[in-house]
UniProtKB/TrEMBL annotation:
The lineage of its organism: Bacteria, Bacillati, Actinomycetota, Actinomycetes, Micromonosporales. It holds the Pfam family GGDEF_2. Residues 82-233 form the GAF domain. It comes from Micromonospora harpali. Belongs to the CdaR family. This is Helix-turn-helix domain-containing protein.
Amino acid sequence: MSVMSSPVEFLELLAREAAAVEFEGPLVAARAAGAPPDRLAELEQAKVVALRVRALLERRRRRESELSGLYDTASDLAGLRDLDAVLRAIVHRARHLLGADVAYMTLDDDERGDTYMRVTDGSISARFQRLRLPMGAGLGGLVAQSGTPYVTANYPEDERFHHTGEIDAGVGEEGLVAILGVPLRLGSTSIGVLYAANRSARPFAREEVSLLVSLAAHAAVAIDTARLLAETQAALAELSAANTTIRAHSSSVERAAAAHDRMTALVLRGGGVEDVASFVADVLGEALLALDAHGRRLARVGQIDEPDRADLVEAVAASRTEGRSVRRGPFWYAAVVAGTENLGALVLRPDGELVDADQRILERAALVTALLLLFRRTVAEAEGRVRGELLDDLIARPLADTDALRTRARRLGVDLDAPHVLVAVGDDAIAATGSARQRALSWATTYASTRGGLAAARDGRVVLMLPGRDAGGAARAVSRDLSRVTGRPVTAGASGPSTDPASLATIFQEADRCLTALGALGRTGQGASTAELGFVGLLLGAVGDRGDGDVARFIATTVGPVVDYDARRGTALVKTLEAYFGVGGSLARAAELLHVHVNTVTQRLERVGQLLGPDWQKPGRALEVQLALRLHRLREPAP
């Protein structure tokens, strides 16, 4: 018997991990060499033992590979960073360890109520890779419902499962025949299925099922770990966001408080609304407009247009109601209020979005502005009382110490030795209601003080002492502007100028008589001076109680026929009479003044004689005619 026909040969075959068929070689060689039966029996027994050892070694190698795969999977879980990568590794190992053609994993979609293909390995069909399975359908549905592994050697022919057209089409396109599915479980809850499949019929041993169950358990742990990690990261992100919000809020509060402190310091140093507006625009880096309760501009910083009046009213009302600044289009509005009183608004035009701190700064600026406006009004009222008391003393009789009055005036910025005119405002401006009287006096105080003058209420009148020499112009300006404020016609009579405090009482009386004369002439809502009314003004001022009715009757009875004739015929008899009396009764000079022929003047005067009677040129009658003509002209002054 040769050496190769000995049992040792089987050990050599085991040592080089020979294929199972090679273990028949020693027996074939022994039979060919004519070995006796006992020797052949010995070799047969050695072959059987060697094959058992070979099978044991094979199982141990496979087990070692399985354990190595599970160890690698556990290592992946320990360093979990990317769930997709871990799941792909698990599916790949399942395919490799089980020697399957395809391995894949499906997960439940709670929102859609079905399952979907999560990971595949070895798949060649795009349709299969995109499969979505109804709950309970296919082998996976049975595995998910029962929570136990299922295996089929021929899926297309297996009637244990609920087949659907979509699933069968995908499985058929992939060419799968034998399929093993095991559940992915978290506690008692199934979250998906892990599969191993072949494109030909094959049985799956219990060891293979057990291995796939272990891999599925690792996959479930990976999914749960990833979920917990995601929740932890989300919680950390929320905590970080909350911390950021808290820091931002704290910074916002501190920034707004610092801005408020700076605005307070600014006010304490004597700053006004303009300074607050400049500060806010500087801090926010924007353009800002400060308006009073009537929409008039108090201050403007930067390039900003005044908003539409209707938008302004609506936005300020909304800001007052909400107690916050509000946005309307490109503007932010903050109401300036004191209690229930509307004092105005701050209008901000930002280049970008305002954060909470910016809004708080704007709102605190509105509060500071309200305090400034209240303080300004209080100071103005106090100063107005002082100025009113000074003017009242100046026009009183007997006049107090003029040197003391000059000293008081200098403290108020008024030079009594400079030219001043006095304007008296009539009862029509102050006789309506108490609020109207107060509004007229408040306006007069502001109007006079801004021009370096004084204002006061005196004997039912509002009196203004204004610097300048044009008494008539001052009266007309006061009449015009105060009429707009009160919404009703205001009559103003003026006199002056005066450069001596001692003469102010007399000038006041003249302005008062001028005011009376304007009323007698029917010129309500107009302004004029004593110089403009002339001697007629003095006459009417002295007898002003007779009123406008007597003046009209006097004009009608004296020159009424001439006035009516002109009105009907469009002639110039009144103008001719004024020119005739104006040149001392000279026909030639009257014709020259009127730019007409002397005969024309003669003819016109003859017509006057026919209308007024033959005695109209006698001294007494002529004086009445001249006075009536003057009154007629004063009642209808030239524009």
